[in-house]
Amino acid sequence: MLSDNESPTINHIPGHVKHDGHNMTGFIIFLCSESIIFFAFFVGYGILKVTAPVWYPEGIDGIAVKEPLINTVILVSSSFVIYFAEKSLHKKNLWGFRFIWFITMLMGSYFVYGQYIEWSELSFSLQSGVFGGMFYLLTGFHGLHVITGILLMGLMLYRSFLPNNYKGGEMGVESVSLFWHFVDVIWIILFVLIYLWQ
Amino acid sequence: MTIINYDQRLVTSKNPYPKGPNDWKRFFSFNTDAKVIGIQYIVTALFFLLLGGLLGMLVRGELITPPSDLFDPTVYNGLYTMHGTVMLFLFLFPMLSGLTNLLVPPMIGAPDMAFPKLNALAFWLVPVFSIILLLSFFVPGGPASSGWWSYPPISIQNPLGKMINGEMLWITAISLSGISSIMGAVNFVTTIIRMRAPGMGFFKMPIFIWTVLAAQLLQLLGLPALTGGAIMLFFDLSFGTSFFRIEGGGDPVLFQHFFWFYSHPAVYVMVLPVFGIFSELFPVYARKPLFGYKFVAVASFGITILSLVVWVHHMFYTGTPMWMRNLFMFTTMLIAVPTGVKVFAWIATLWGGNLRLSTPMLFCLGGLFNFIFGGITGVMLATVPVDIHVGNTYFVVAHFHYIIFNTIAFGIFAGIYHWFPKFTGRMFYEGLGKVHFALTFVGATLNWLPLHWAGLLGMPRRVASYDPEFAIWNVIASIGAFILGVASIPFILNMVSSWVRGKAAPPNPWKAIGLEWLLPSPPPHENFEDDIPTVLNEPYCYGLDKPFVQDEQFYIDKSFKKH
């Protein structure tokens, strides 16, 4: 924001006012809003868990924690990995960025794969009572975000091979990295709610 | 620094489009100019106002006689559901997005919105979800019929067992509308935070900008909750989950929480920009500074924050525990405080002013009058014992329409008339405008005032037939509804003929203060382009010795030179 109150002449800003440069602000506002959907689901989960007369579907009295825990560790540590990727981009170490960025993508893909394995081994379905619905809704909706994150990372990786990638690409990399941290934090809450609070 | 006398300038402009593309085709294209998008939104919304009004008149036509004779009761359920949905999601939200798009960039001195492409995308979602919603008239089983709130278990019945049914299309359309609104909100908030003119601190922004910021933050905080609820409702309806299905262990009341957590603030999303319009227009037409500018500005955020914690007052009679009822009765009544601050500020602005009773001012005064009335019935409804007595009767319908039409739509009409010369470059016909106001005010009052009595006597809402003792109130209400239908004729006539062959508008026909009035009419593509003014004071210093912007004369001369 320019404040030129003291200057006696009219404030002439050279060139047209740029439209870009607000992407990060817009993206942060969007993420805050997006987190409300998850918040709504979490609150719904909590209320139903506390009030529902029957919670787990018949024949189930809990849900395995071990494999999801490995998944969690991988996803959460990928948040640190992506930080180093971003850092190497700032240091103009382009190949370092691409390599670490790709590792993050692999870790995210492993998470999706682990989720798929878990889903295929479960004995209950979306229609199995309130818990069944909630479980698949929450993990599925989060999984969609993970897949979106991986696709966005792929896009950024592709853009890093285009000429002038430092010009427009950096903002995109920062946004995707922020998105990935967001997906991570959501997963931690989700993990606590679904797997630890049994 | 010279003080500008706003009363000296005369009309000099001849051609309203000196440079800009005077091509109607741009309104049918993926145009990224906020001014084009604004007009696209407004014209689309006005079309749906006619459609929603037609549905409303069909509802009133059915209710003019006690028995259910015009339509089958099932058809009637679809009619009032679609009336409410069209009016809220296809008329009011797009209309306010349109006004916001038109007004925000010029008012804060920005060339355009922060994300023009996102802006265009948000608009083009409107025809998409509108068509999806209207298609539901043609699917087997008819459109959604569970009311605009779509409560389960009624909304998850799906008696025909078809995958594509009215309710499913309804949920899809509402979710798309939510996505469009979020795109808009991200855009508006970013624009207001990042793109204000030099010198325009928060406490020098026009009140309209304050209210838009408050309203759009509310969208960002509230709307995703409804989207979450809608996703769960969709799963219950289409994929056999049981989030809200009692026989599967779910909780139908949970949906009411999701729905009202957003849909109560949604009313504030709509009414806040209208408060902004009132605050802009009263000083102009009373020739006085806005009373208590800072209080009016901050009160907008008071409303935003409070409105997030009042939603349970819609659920006093759905098994809510007593402590919760009392708590939400208290928070609901607290909202009367910031709202009261605004009302007092407007009345104090008018007090002793040199009132100019032109069409925009008449709509503002009518809207303010109706808002005070609707606000008082709102406080009545917030009281738990009264609400339990009159809940789900026509008293609620009457209160709601006093806010949503008699205040919000009045404010919207006032805004359209006030800024019409600015954005079309043409003056409207004052006489037709006054006829429009008279018909609207009489029609709206006849339509909704009697329904308060019908409701207090116990007439339930959402029924096609009723006891003959309520007949008299309903006959008056239906006559009012048809007068409202007639009122659209002078309005359309005025808008179309003025835009085509109205008198050319000067840059500042109302002698108003504000950045948008320093621009030519219509403003050039990027508003101020390179010469963005430095703002010195808030735009309400009528008759005060305080300059609005630095070198104001330069901008006034420039805005005239365009012609």
Give the low-pLDDT segments of chain B: 7-20
Report the helical percentage of chain A: over 70%
Number of helices of chain A: 5
Shape of chain B: globular
Q: If you average the pLDDT of chain B, what whole number results? A: 91
Descriptive account of the structure:
The complex is a heterodimer of chains A (198) and B (563). With 198 residues, chain A is mostly helical. Chain A has five helices and no strands. Chain A is elongated, with a radius of gyration of 22 Å. The relative contact order of chain A is 0.15. Chain B has 563 residues and is mostly helical. Chain B has a single domain (39-560), classed as Cytochrome c oxidase-like, subunit I domain (Cytochrome C Oxidase, Chain A), CATH 1.20.210.10. Chain B is globular. Chain B starts with 33 loop residues before the first helix and ends with a helix. Chains A and B meet through α1 and α4 of A and α4, α5 and α6 of B.
Quick overview:
The complex is a heterodimer of chains A (198) and B (563). By secondary structure, chain A is mostly helical.
Keywords for this structure?
heterodimer, A: 198 residues, mainly alpha, Four Helix Bundle (Hemerythrin (Met), subunit A), 0% strand, elongated, disordered N terminus, B: 563 residues, Cytochrome C Oxidase, Chain A, globular
Architecture blueprint of SSEs:
The complex is a heterodimer of chains A (198) and B (563).
Chain A: H1 23-51, H2 66-90, H3 94-121, H4 129-159, H5 165-196
Helix pairs in contact in A: 1-4, 1-5, 2-3, 2-5, 3-4, 4-5
Chain B: H1 34-63, H2 73-108, H3 116-135, H4 166-194, H5 207-239, H6 252-286, H7 293-307, H8 322-334, H9 336-350, H10 359-382, H11 384-390, H12 394-424, H13 430-456, H14 471-501, H15 552-561
Helix pairs in contact in B: 1-2, 1-3, 1-14, 2-4, 2-12, 3-4, 4-5, 5-6, 5-7, 6-7, 6-9, 6-10, 6-12, 7-9, 10-12, 10-13, 12-13, 13-14
